[in-house]
Amino acid sequence: MRKVFQAELQTIGEELINLSKLVAEAMERAYESFSNADTEQAQEVIAADARVDFLQNKLDEHAIDILALQGPVASDLRMIVGSLRMSASLERMGDLARHIAQLTRLRFPDKVLPESMTGTFDQMADLNIRIANKVGELLATRDLNLAAEIIDLNKQIDELHAGVFRAIAADDWNQDAPTTTDVTLASRYMERYGDHGVSVARKVNYLVTGEWEPQLE
Amino acid sequence: MRKVFQAELQTIGEELINLSKLVAEAMERAYESFSNADTEQAQEVIAADARVDFLQNKLDEHAIDILALQGPVASDLRMIVGSLRMSASLERMGDLARHIAQLTRLRFPDKVLPESMTGTFDQMADLNIRIANKVGELLATRDLNLAAEIIDLNKQIDELHAGVFRAIAADDWNQDAPTTTDVTLASRYMERYGDHGVSVARKVNYLVTGEWEPQLE
């Protein structure tokens, strides 16, 4: 029984890792479409999100089956319930990447970002992709240093996000109102994507140590 | 055993209803602070959100205890797992009401909204408060007509949200860029709040009927 359970738990872990890879790729491709005003690629990202939703649903059904058939308790139970929370965060990361791609489509053939903002958003996208990749690594290895690193990367996103609002409020901001709206939304999507990565990292840390706040070794 | 379980399930239901009341009140008071540039009331809403987080956490621990001690299966198990999802949605509604209050504080002593937008936002806030109240009623009565009504109210919010973007893109929009950003964010928070209400409504509908899409009788 115990052996079967461990195999099931392993499968759930692999499904989470798979989801984290898909949402890392979704952000990478969504941001590429966003930078290049590539509406075809944006459309592919939007279509691919259905697969993330499908896999999240499959993972959740799998977790419920385990709860029903194996009746896990203590840390095993917490791991299964935690996987439901983590799959929800990963699914939401997929949605946010899709929202970036939707902005691309909405403004096509124009680019969403004014030239002055591309540096900031390049950094936010890069940090988010690194966060999603580290989430996958953390799920695979349970190396909790990765959880602390994810939190640190997300702090950098928060600073960049605040910088976007400062830029919008500055005297030399000369963009039209719809551009201001799009930049605001895109920055918010970037910020939320990172937050969900942190949620997964904290959850793994909690499941391993019982503490929410990861400590660097 | 069965009787104990039903009592536990009842308690979880009451905790969800309690959360829905708190987040309805949070939106009501947050929007009042937002309309009146009342920074004291905004601060109270922000502080009160800790209670929502605490109660969500308590509900989740309770649900995990039930899973561990009673090992429910079939529809009982789905109800418990569903309650974890619903508590997460309700907690997020509390966060979004808090975000509205945070905008109030950020712009104090100015009001966040230009005069031309108050009518639209009054309607969005009113629809959201009605959604949260109907979520509580739905949880209490399982009258699935309420689920369909919630979905309909949320469609009205989506239309108002789209109207905000049209207003921002119109020739006569003459607000400065930070105002445009705040209006964009506030509208997004309103839209997301309603979406989470719909998530809870669909979940209740699914648990009762096995279908995601509520049908009006």
Can you describe what's shown?
Two copies of one chain form a homodimer. Chain A has 217 residues and is an all-alpha fold. The first copy, chain A, has a single domain (2-209), classed as Phosphate transport system protein phou homolog 2, domain 2 (Methane Monooxygenase Hydroxylase, Chain G, domain 1, Up-down Bundle). Chain A has helices spanning 2-36, 39-70, 74-107, 118-141, 145-169, 177-209. In chain A, helix 1 (2-36) runs antiparallel to helix 2 (39-70), helix 1 (2-36) packs antiparallel against helix 4 and helix 3 runs antiparallel to helix 6. The first copy, chain A, starts with a helix and ends in an 8-residue tail after the last helix. The A-B interface holds A 60, 63-64, 67-68, 71, 73-74, 77-78, 81, 84-85, 88, 165, 168-169, 173, 175, 177-178, 180-181, 184-185, 188 and B 60, 63-64, 67-68, 71, 73-74, 77-78, 81, 84-85, 88, 165, 168-169, 173, 175, 177-178, 180-181, 184-185, 188. Chains A, B: This is Phosphate-specific transport system accessory protein PhoU.
Largest two-chain interface = A-B, 26 and 26 residues
Q: Which CATH C-level class of chain A is it?
A: Mainly Alpha
- Strand elements of chain A, count: 0
Please give the count of helices of chain A: 6
Q: What is the N-to-C succession of helices and strands of chain A?
A: HHHHHH
Let me know the largest β-sheet of chain A.
none
**Rg of chain A computed from alpha carbons, rounded to a whole number of angstroms:** 19 Å
| CATH topology term of chain A | Methane Monooxygenase Hydroxylase, Chain G, domain 1
Structural class of chain A: mainly alpha
Please name the CATH architecture of chain A: Up-down Bundle
Any low-confidence stretches of chain A, pLDDT <50, length ≥5?
none
Average per-residue pLDDT of chain A, rounded, comes to: 96
Counting structural domains of chain A, the number is: 1
Termini Cα gap of chain A: 35 Å
Rough outline of chain A: elongated
Multimerization status:
homodimer
GO cellular component, one term (chains A, B): cytoplasm
Pfam families (chains A, B): PhoU
Subunit structure (chains A, B): Homodimer.
Organism (chains A, B): Zhihengliuella halotolerans
